[in-house]
Amino acid sequence: MRASILALPLLATLMITACKPEDAAPAAVKPAPAAAAPQQVDEHSYAEPQKVVVSDLALDLALDFDSKTLAGTAILTLDWKDKTATELRLDTRDLTIEKAEGDDGKGGWVPLKFRLAGIDPILGAKLTVETPKRNAKVRVTYRTSPKASGLQWMEPSMTEGKQLPFMYSQSQQIHARSWVPLQDTPSVRYTYSARIKSRPDVMVLMSADNDPNAVRDGDYTFRMPQKIPSYLMAIAAGDLKFQFISDRSGVWAEPTMLDRAVQEFADTEKMIVTAEGLYGRYRWERYDMLVLPPSFPYGGMENPRLTFLTPTVIVGDKSLVWLIAHELAHSWSGNLVTFSSAKDAWLNEGFTNYVENRIVEALYGRDQADMQSVIERNALKKEFAQIDPKLQVLATAPGVLADPDNDGSSATVYTKGAWLLHFLEERFGREKFDAFLRGYFDHFAFQSIDSEQFAQYAKANLLDKYPNIVSQSEFEEWLYKPGIPANAPHVQARRFGVVDSARLAWLGSRQLPPRVITDAWISQEWIHFIESLPDAMTIEQLAQLDAAYGFTGTPNAEIAERWYPLAINNGYTQANDAIADFLKRVGRIKLIAPTYQALVQTQGGLALATQVFEQAKPAYHPITIARIEAIIANARPPAEPSPVAQPATPPDADAAAAPAAGSAG
Ligand code: BES
Ligand code: ZN
Q1: Which CATH number is 555's domain given?
Q2: Residues 340, 330 contacting (CB under 8 angstroms)
Q3: Is the CB of 172 within 6 Å of ligand 1?
Q4: Given ligand 1 and candidates 44, 290, 301, which is best to mutate, with the most ligand atoms within 8 Å of its CB?
Q5: Which has the closest alpha carbon to 193: 203, 207, 183?
Q6: Of all atoms in ligand 1, which is nearest to the CA of residue 172?
Q7: DSSP E strand boundaries for 390-509
Q8: Is residue 423 one of the residues assigned to a domain?
Q9: What Enzyme Commission number does this protein have (predicted)?
Q10: What is the distance in A from the centroid of ligand 1 to the CA of 298?
């Protein structure tokens, strides 16, 4: 059983002393709105934005399902900061570069020398284009690899409709470089346009000005007039139809999914209106959503104007649509004000988690928002038990994040990040804090910033403006120290009281709660019920729950995510067929990684995991494949012959043996 959140280990003894440079700027009431200049270079990019910055990108690509490639040209418009620079350095991964040219200032193109460096397993290959004349534009002719890490190409048989092929991108964190040669760092923002040619029977969409009334003809043009960072570049193609939810919002999906999706997402316009009421006008014109195949490796991705979504969010009762609130919230936190490198990921995800919670509260009530917070904070506690204290800080130090896609610290980034904002809200009061946040989004709109810039802004516009409410050292503890500060506000979810009593009563008496109670439970209550069960359970106990609630084989993947590891850890092999089906049906990393993780730690489980993975692999996304391969490769054979209900198992034994399996998705 999980300890109460009040017993959160504060890790005070582990806290490393923060080595934060003193804020250079004096506490002016409002810092001058100078262009945000990130202090540090992005360690996950080869680009040199202090020398040259891409200000616009124009793509002209052929999208070919037979060869699984995008091929054509990328024209980069350049803003040379260093007038003595002689090279343009770009990020690439698995790209074939055919040609590099520079504009000659008279409307023509002249060849430029270029070289592609050796491949770094995380960063890809640096492309250096020689630009002794510092051309205003550089044109690169290239093609992608069929195994581009940021693209998934799917046969018709892998789609809902089974008639047409499907492809889509996932660029965050550093996969845009696998389909466009560019400065793949969020510190650089640019406008883009694209012309994409494809077979005429598929619809092509991008994170740009999609036309709800577009006709399929195989020739599509796009424009994104607002400056965005590279991780928000996105493309998808397939048998996609559109339906409006409101004037400015709607859903793209395969025809058979469309009606269900529109019903599930019916509250989207209300969410936009709520967010606008809090943080100012929605600045991206349309807000549409694209429902992807179940192999989508994440829950959602905030591609501007076109959120990408997992179909696993469609469960029929709107109980998982906080995911939409989350992706919509990124229209302010992330897309408007962007982290300048992955080590400040909390500026995107922590802020967004907070805004999401506010939207959920406004639309579905405080109870649901609180239940969500409690579930997340329990997960954060588990994460802290596993990860290096260096990863438990919001403003991580340079060199700490190896692979920005998989550092096992997502609860820190999301939940601790949001918790800091809940803390500030509690201390300053909603009125002042809401005004502060709204001012922050306006002040840094369309800029990329780091944690230091946020800290300076907060000092001037919150801490110093309303003195003696939060001290600088309290604030800095949140940003620069591991664990959760002792002054953190705690949230109780009223409705979990009922869930807890029901669980305890059942564990004591084998008497399940009356139907009238459980019939009213939504996903969050079921999640809490399962998460709070003891680690060691008997087959009879699991079977009784299963008979009553049908957890095994549940269509709700959030419930499956929690139930199957519990079943596996307790040798409840009756669930194996359903587990295999689940792992083959869903590719969302967050949902399936815990089940693979549990499987590889049991005797028969490793064989089952390996076998299911081989079958599921063709339908998985490259990012999912990499993650599951790592889980299987890191598998340690279990010490005991049978893992069945051993009361001696320490509560966090599962955590202790687990390699970093954290993920945003
Ligand atoms: N931007 C993230 C997805 C992401 C993060 C992709 C880091 C790659 C690297 C997205 O907004 C997100 O947070 N998705 C969550 C949704 C959830 C927290 C509501 C997910 O996919 O689970
Ligand atoms: Zn997010």
Answers
A1: 1.25.40.320
A2: no
A3: yes
A4: 301
A5: 207
A6: 8
A7: 447-449
A8: no
A9: 3.4.11.2
A10: 6
Angle between helices 576-585 and 589-599 (to 10 degrees): 140
The SS3 call for residue 118 is strand
Position with higher pLDDT, 122 vs 645: 122
Query: What is the C-alpha to C-alpha distance for residues 213 and 426, in angstroms, rounded to an integer?
Result: 46
Nearest atom in ligand 1 to 414's CA: 18
Q: How many domains does the chain have?
A: 2
More confident residue, 173 or 650: 173
Name the token pair of 348.
């995107």
Angstrom distance (rounded) from CA 502 to CA 500: 5
| Domain, as residue range, for 63 | 48-161+168-184+188-232
What is the reported pLDDT for 431? 98
In a domain, 520, yes or no: yes
List the CATH number of the domain containing 66: 2.60.40.1730
Please tell me if the CB atom of residue 327 comes closer than 6 angstroms to any atom of ligand 1.
Answer: yes
Q: Establish how many alpha carbons lie within 13 A of residue 532's alpha carbon, considering only the half-sphere containing its beta carbon.
A: 22
**Ligand number, closest to the Cα atom of 172:** 1
- Give pLDDT tens digits for 580-635: 999 999 999 999 999 999 999 998 999 999 999 999 999 999 999 999 999 999 98
300 close to ligand 1 (CB < 6 Angstrom):
yes
Q: Whose CA is nearest to atom 11 of ligand 1?
A: 301
pLDDT reading at 406 higher than 80:
no
Cα(300) to centroid of ligand 1, in Å? 6
Alpha carbons 530 and 567: distance in angstroms, whole number:
11
Query: Whole-model pTM?
Result: 0.91
In this model, does residue 645 exceed pLDDT 80?
no
- Which is it for strands 137-143 and 124-130: parallel, antiparallel or unpaired? unpaired
Question: Residue 216: pLDDT above 50?
Answer: yes
Please tell me whether the peptide bond between 173 and the residue prior to it is cis, using omega within 30 degrees of 0: yes
Phi/psi for 84 (5° steps) reads -110, 0
**Range 521-528 average pLDDT:** 96
pLDDT number for residue 558: 96
Ligand located closest to 298 CA:
1
Among 647, 582, 573, 645, residue whose Cα is nearest residue 605: 573
For residue 12, count other CB atoms closer than 10 A to its CB.
12
248: CB partners within 8 A, 6+ apart: 269, 272, 282, 285, 286, 287
404 lines ligand 1 (CB under 6 A): no
Q: What's the whole-number mean pLDDT along residues 167-176?
A: 98
Q: Which residues are catalytic?
A: 327, 414
- Predicted confidence band of residue 40 (pLDDT cuts 50, 70, 90): low
Q: Is residue 21 part of a domain?
A: no
Which DSSP state fits 403?
S
Could you tell me if the CB of 302 is within 6 A of ligand 1?
A: yes
The percent of residues in the chain predicted with pLDDT above 90, rounded, is: 87
Whole-angstrom distance, CA of residue 127 vs CA of residue 118: 10
Q: How far is the CA of 85 from the centre of ligand 2 (A)?
A: 36
Residue 225 domain-assigned (yes or no): yes
pLDDT tens, residue by residue, 314-364: 999 898 999 999 999 999 999 999 999 999 999 999 999 999 999 999 999
Q: Is it the case that residue 636 has pLDDT exceeding 80?
A: no
Residue 202 has pLDDT above 90, yes or no: yes
Rounded to the nearest angstrom, the distance between the alpha carbon of 431 and the centre of ligand 1 is 29
Mean pLDDT of 521-541: 97
What's the confidence (pLDDT) of residue 639?
A: 58
Q: What are residue 437's phi and psi, to 5 degrees?
A: -65, -40
Distance 149 CA to ligand 2 centre (A): 20
